[in-house]
């Protein structure tokens, strides 16, 4: 699947965000190693801390459905150039060490980063066993 198609799916996923407190909607669409596409949007909770980011929503759904390796993920938000938060980067590290992150404003305005670029010198599953 090309980047533009994945971005459009993330843009559509943003419509399902639940953001009564911030009004800041984020949409994510990921591609698994098996070629499956999974989406997510942010969901906010009145007590704030249980709030779930779009990226983790998509990743946890994918893992629950059996995926263990993510190839790439498109992220888009109501603001320009929205990058995944630090917590989401660590979750990406668990299930997508070699993944690409597409930071998208639209289907023709986006940049692609490796997870290594966004989370250098990371700690991951291998570090517990080596
Ligand atoms: N948010 C995401 O969904 N992904 C990010 O990477 C950054 C932040 C959400 C969480 C919250 O619902 C809103 O954006 C404002 O922080």
Please tell me about this protein's structure.
By secondary structure, the protein is an alpha+beta fold. It has a single domain (3-128), classed as Cytidine Deaminase, domain 2 (3-Layer(aba) Sandwich), CATH 3.40.140.10. It contains four helices and five strands; from the N terminus they run αββαβαββα. It has a five-stranded mixed sheet. β1 (26-32) and β2 (37-41) form a beta hairpin. α2 runs parallel beside α3. It is globular and about 40 Å long. The model has no long low-confidence stretch (mean pLDDT 97). The structure holds tetrahydrodeoxyuridine (THU). Residues 19, 22, 24, 26, 42, 44, 51, 53-55, 84-85, 88 line the site of tetrahydrodeoxyuridine (THU).
Mean pLDDT: 97
The main β sheet shows up as:
5 strands, mixed
CATH class: Alpha Beta
- Distinct bound molecules: tetrahydrodeoxyuridine
Q: Tell me, briefly, the overall form.
A: globular
CATH level-4 homologous superfamily: Cytidine Deaminase, domain 2
Terminal-residue CA separation: 35 Å
Gyration radius from CA atoms, angstroms = 14 Å
Please give the CATH architecture. 3-Layer(aba) Sandwich
Class per helix and strand makeup: alpha+beta
Overall number of domains: 1
Q: Kindly identify the CATH topology.
A: Cytidine Deaminase, domain 2
N to C succession of SSEs: HEEHEHEEH
Please mark out the parts with pLDDT under 50 across 5 or more consecutive residues, or reply none.
none
Q: Classify the beta-strand content into a percent band.
A: 25-35%
- Order of strands, main sheet, comes to 2-1-3-4-5
Helix content: 25-40%
Helices, by number, come to 4
Strands, count: 5
């Amino acid at each position: 699947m090309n980047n533009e198609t994945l971005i459009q799916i993330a843009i559509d996923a943003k419509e399902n965000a639940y953001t009564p407190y911030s009004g800041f909607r984020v949409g994510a669409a990921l591609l698994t190693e098996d070629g499956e596409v999974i989406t997510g949007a942010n969901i906010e909770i009145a007590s704030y801390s249980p709030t779930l980011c779009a990226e983790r929503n998509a990743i946890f759904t994918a893992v629950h459905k059996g995926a263990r390796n993510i190839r790439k993920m498109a992220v888009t938000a109501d603001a320009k150039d929205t990058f995944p938060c630090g917590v989401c980067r660590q979750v990406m590290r668990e299930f997508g060490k070699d993944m690409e992150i597409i930071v998208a404003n639209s289907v023709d305005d986006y940049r692609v980063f490796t997870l290594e670029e966004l989370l250098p010198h990371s700690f991951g599953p291998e570090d517990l066993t080596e």
